[in-house]
């Protein structure tokens, strides 16, 4: 594989900013698309992203910044998508250049709401990209801790191991370790499902359940995740690997998680709409819950936690009553 | 099975106090041994244990209290031991009555330091009690949350399912759910190993590692626990059940855990001795680490986390250096 392939990051949020930082440890140039011209000008003048991880200082001569997604993608060989899943569909509508010969890595932890597909599948079905050119970059990893250069472990999944290794070598540094995986479907579903379980953890906390219950909830969640993923894509995987269990834990037990915060507000009595307005954003897990529920209507895995969260988010059910019933199903 | 069997709790600490509270929801009389005559008098006069979970109010006419262990054991058919593992050997030396026809449940999360055995094995080998009369009562469960009547899930393990069910029915209440298991060896080793991993979590925190690392550590810990327990006692078990993974999480992520606190102090630079003096107690995991390490010298499971903690506690190795090496072995 050509070792000089150029790498682009698509997105201006905290996870995109963290990925650019990681790549800057190893590359002379990182191609970086973000929507906001203001943010780009700010980075050029002040060496940091004004909106996210602003403690991270960049060397601007390492960055090729643009608010033109076509410019950035046409310059790059490997594109890492790190926009919120709710925006990926719209961002891609702006494309005039072809993605056909690109290697696409998804760092998006969720589902494309418009198609109900995980991001890899979306690229495969709608942009005709072969699975061996599709990969996933996943945690467990809070962007905030990358900013602090706290030791973190990423999993880079790709059906083509050479491409996974290529990216892993460019991401690894003193504070980042990478593991290679060939489970692009499972790791991406895990990254999406964990947001639903983080909402569940938040609801439980908001309702006044304690740490004992939380640990039982997480123990049930990982078993549920295993059942779900097995139905969607059966292959040999250890669900207790960091990309699955670790990612669940870092989100479920996190103070940073917006999904957990969203759930917490629901547990405390906010309606779905008022919680979303209060947060002035929609948590990834909100869409993930609907998509996972729909997928599972066909697949039929036993998913009491997913079902409970779905009934609260989309059937307007009372969280207290739903969790009382859920508690009887956990063990 | 005779449904009128009498139940005794041996121990005066927070976990013993929580168990007595749970039993008082269902029984007319609970037999309760504790060493301290002062505490007994205090409970009789003021309806609560002066030293532990003092918010829990007892109805004194439900309690048969005594500081004479022989009196309590001779009156009971089923004895739940809930003293710290460091004291169980000495407490048992005071016995003059026979344990031969008793059903013994261990709620002790650790190893008997004098014999290096888990408590069930200790009773089996040193008191000639058949395994079908030995059981384990395990979490995930902080006693403090039982005091608050927060929903908690216990696992009651016994080779004889009838006895496990008998106890489960007397423990269950509005806020306690019980699961039955036949894995008395595995659940007890899990309860002991989790304290070692809680020390590891504490050391990592003390050294400045963040949440990303912590989730990877726990994800590796559950895989290590599975390997260890499989070597010691091979049977079909789901390591992600609450009694194993849940118990690991509630301790590893806990602010209550004394083992985690102990580890945290080591990570911050305290010596083992000074951390123990500062805490004015020895954390269960301190003994567990030595015993587990010795057992594993024979069994040969891959246990990098256990080995790291052992080298810090017993070989006086530098936590920072040890964890730097450990980090390379995790994934």
From TrEMBL, chains A, B:
Pfam family, one: NAD_Gly3P_dh_C
GO cellular component entries: cytosol
InterPro entries named among the record's database cross-references: 6-PGluconate_DH-like_C_sf, 6PGD_dom2, G3P_DH_NAD-dep, G3P_DH_NAD-dep_C, G3P_DH_NAD-dep_N, NAD(P)-bd_dom_sf
Keywords linked to the UniProt accession: Lipid biosynthesis, Lipid metabolism, NAD, Oxidoreductase, Phospholipid biosynthesis, Phospholipid metabolism
Molecular function in Gene Ontology: glycerol-3-phosphate dehydrogenase (NADP+) activity; NAD binding
Reactions the enzyme catalyzes: sn-glycerol 3-phosphate + NADP(+) = dihydroxyacetone phosphate + NADPH + H(+)
Residues reported to bind NAD(+): 87, 143, 258
GO biological process: one example: glycerol-3-phosphate catabolic process
Amino acids binding substrate: 109, 258-259
Stretches assigned to the Glycerol-3-phosphate dehydrogenase NAD-dependent N-terminal domain: 6-161
EC id: 1.1.1.94
Family: Belongs to the NAD-dependent glycerol-3-phosphate dehydrogenase family.
Protein name (record): Glycerol-3-phosphate dehydrogenase
Species this protein is from: Nonlabens xylanidelens
């Amino acid at each position: 594989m050509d070792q000089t392939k150029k790498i682009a990051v698509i997105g201006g949020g905290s996870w995109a900013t963290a990925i650019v930082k990681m790549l800057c440890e190893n590359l002379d140039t990182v191609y970086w698309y973000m929507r906001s011209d203001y943010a780009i000008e700010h980075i050029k003048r002040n060496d940091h992203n004004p909106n996210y991880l602003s403690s991270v200082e960049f060397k601007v001569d390492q960055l090729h910044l643009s608010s033109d997604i076509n410019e950035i993608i046409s310059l790059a060989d490997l594109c890492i998508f790190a926009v919120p899943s709710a925006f990926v569909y719209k961002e891609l509508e702006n494309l005039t250049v072809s993605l056909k010969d690109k290697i696409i890595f998804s760092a998006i932890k969720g589902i494309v709401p418009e198609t109900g597909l995980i991001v890899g599948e979306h690229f495969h079905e709608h942009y005709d990209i072969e699975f061996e050119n599709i990969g996933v970059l996943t945690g467990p990893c809070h962007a905030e801790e990358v900013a602090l250069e706290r030791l973190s472990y990423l999993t880079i999944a790709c059906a083509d191991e050479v491409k996974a290794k290529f990216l892993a070598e460019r991401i690894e540094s003193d504070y980042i370790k990478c593991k290679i995986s060939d489970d692009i479907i499972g790791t991406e579903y895990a990254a999406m499902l964990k947001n639903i379980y983080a909402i569940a953890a938040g609801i439980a906390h908001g309702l006044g359940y304690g740490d004992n219950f939380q640990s039982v909830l997480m123990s049930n969640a990982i078993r549920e995740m295993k059942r779900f993923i097995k139905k969607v894509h059966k292959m040999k995987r250890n669900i207790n690997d960091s990309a699955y269990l670790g990612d669940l834990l870092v989100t479920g037990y996190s103070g940073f998680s917006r999904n957990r915060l969203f759930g917490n507000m629901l547990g405390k009595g906010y309606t779905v709409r008022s919680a979303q307005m209060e947060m002035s954003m929609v948590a990834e897990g909100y869409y993930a819950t609907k998509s996972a529920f729909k997928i599972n209507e066909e697949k039929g895995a036993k998913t009491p936690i997913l079902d409970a969260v779905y009934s609260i988010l989309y059937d307007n059910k009372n969280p207290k009553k739903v969790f009382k019933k859920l508690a009887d199903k956990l063990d």
